[in-house]
Each structure stands twice: as structure tokens, then as C-alpha cells.
């Protein structure tokens, strides 16, 4: 087959265009740090990249949920610690007031403090995190307890949970009745109401009876307190697991999408050398004509 000058020129331009296209791609990769800047760069790789990006986005949401859950539980932990302190003080006062040396006026003075402690427990029962009530199940926009009728206020029994993986949802909320006792029973609020009433009426037997009841509601709060600690530990474990999973996903994504700068720079330099060689060779070929052979 006869190779004409036009064919040589066309082939040279095609080769130069291919080299320039390859160099442009390499320059874009170095500028962005990404192997894939458009789907045509790697149709198979872009599918993997999209899957890893989706998994990382979901993982970020799970991590945020775990952190939120931990923060909520820390707030609840602090609230129950305060409740425990209040009941400890109430027991100390009840023990003192049960002493036969106290008179009616002294017991009324103790009653005033017990009533304040009960109000403090109502406030603890209405603890919030980020504007959401913690001890009213799924009705987080409604305070679970009222000051005047806390002993008989029922709380919502729904459970608020947070997803920390596609298949795992960890419960966060604990209902007020689980922590402080069921409405209409000897819950923590009724115990303190009864104690204050016994103190106001100088009823030593009622004051003494309150000691065992305070111990009972304190034990109930301690059980919930331990449950909160266990859930906090679980969220900590899930955060560590999510972090490990994110490291693996980022490594896999990097292998598909991130540029190896040392290799990319070497490759681009090699292409520059090829381009220079092609231009030099092409210039010599294009200068050759029939007159050159006739000299």
C-alpha cells in the first residue's frame, strides 16, 4: 500500500492528539487528586466509587446518631446522679426527723425542705436535651411531670431509638415510670409527698416508714442508672466499630479513585518526553519531499 504525505500527516496529527489527550487527563488527575473526574475515565471504577461514597455517607449518619445517643445518655446519667443526691438528702432529713428529740415545729421545718426536694425531683424528671424531654418516651415535646400532680402523672411508654447501623437500633430513652415509679403507686414523688405530710402532722410512724420507701425508689433509680451506663458503653463500642469501618471504606475508595502522585508525575513526565519525540520526528518527516530525493 502506498503511503502518501497526506496519510503521514493525518497519522501524525492523530498520534499527537492522543498524546495530548492523555497528558490533559494526567494533568487533571494531578490537579484534582482524583483518578476519576468523569464517568468515561473509568466506567467500572466510577460504580465502585459511588458505592463507597454512599456507604461513607451512611456511616457518617450512623456516627452522628451514636454521638447523639451518647450525649443524650450523658445528660440522663447526670440527671439520675442529681436524683440520687436528692434522695440521699431526703433520707438524711427523714432519719433526723424520726428522732424523738424533734418537736412538731422542727418537723415542719424539715417538711419545707422535703417539699423543695420534691420540686427538684420534678425538675429532674422534666430534664431536656436539645429541647426534647428525656423521660416521656416518644412524646419528647411534652413535659412528663407537673409540679402539683407528679405522683399521678403517667408518662409515655414509647421507646426512642437511634440506628447505629443498617440493622441495629439502640434504645436511648427510658420512661419516667421506669425510673421514678409508676403513676398512682409509691413512686418517688408520692414517697416525698407522704413524707412531707407526715412531717407536717408530726406523725413519727409515717416518717419512719418513709425510710424504707426512699430506699426502694432509690434502688429503682439505681437500676435505671446502671442501664444508662450499659447503653453508653454500647454506643462507645459502636462508635469505635463505625470508625474502623470508615477507615476501611476510605482505603478502598482511595484505591479506586485517588491519584498516586508519584506514579502520576512520572507518567506525565514520560508522556511529555513522548510528545517531544513525536514532534521532533514529525517535523523531520514532514520536511521530506520528492525534491529531497532528487538532490
UniProtKB/TrEMBL annotation:
Note one Pfam family from the annotation.
Answer: Flagellin_C
Name residues in a coiled coil.
Answer: none
Compartment(s): Bacterial flagellum
Residues annotated as domain Flagellin N-terminal? 4-140
| Keyword set, alphabetical order | Bacterial flagellum, Cell projection, Cilium, Flagellum
Chief location bin: other
As given in the record, the signal peptide range reads none
Domain annotation Flagellin C-terminal: ranges? 211-293
Please state which protein family the record places this protein in: Belongs to the bacterial flagellin family.
Protein name, UniProt field: Flagellar hook-associated protein FlgL
**What species is given as this protein's source?**
Paenibacillus chibensis
What lineage is on file? Bacteria, Bacillati, Bacillota, Bacilli, Bacillales
Q: Which gene encodes it?
A: flgL
